[in-house]
Amino acid sequence: MALLPLFKLKGETKMKRSIIVSVLCLLTLCATAGLAQTRTAVSTPEADNPTIAFKQLMAELKRLRLEVLQQGIEFQQWKIKQIESELQPMQREQDHLTQQETAIRQQIAEIDQHAASSTPTGTAPGSEIETIKTELAEKGLPAIHSKREPITERVSELTRQLNQEEARLYDLLNKAKKLRTED
Question: Which residues are CB-neighbours of 75 under 8 A, at least 6 positions away?
């Protein structure tokens, strides 16, 4: 898990390339080790039989593929947790701003209701009410909208990324399941 921060690169292609290179290195190492082992081993019927050697090589290759898929699954799970940890406070802030907007709209509605139900006794209280209403409508709501807009955009982007990473995780899980069931 200590290597995961090293994979925080701009594109997924770099990650795929590094995984492919790692797999190729592991396969080369296994093939080299297998050849050296067969050369130094005592001659047995299993070592002389190319079919058995091929099956062993294929089993080792399958094991390595499963290991690489498991690492990919763990990495996807880590990425999903990172996105979720960034997304949750943004959603809370978005909800908070929505509640503030609702409260301001309720205040404006109450002011309108109060102004409609009260009998005009003079122009001063009515103008004060209109001033408060105008302040709420012209200053309060636009301030909330200006704060909420970038948050909403970021929440949308993070949600899209989360869905994409979850789809990749699901794909890796299916590949691993399929590889485990193959014979």
Answer: 4, 7, 15
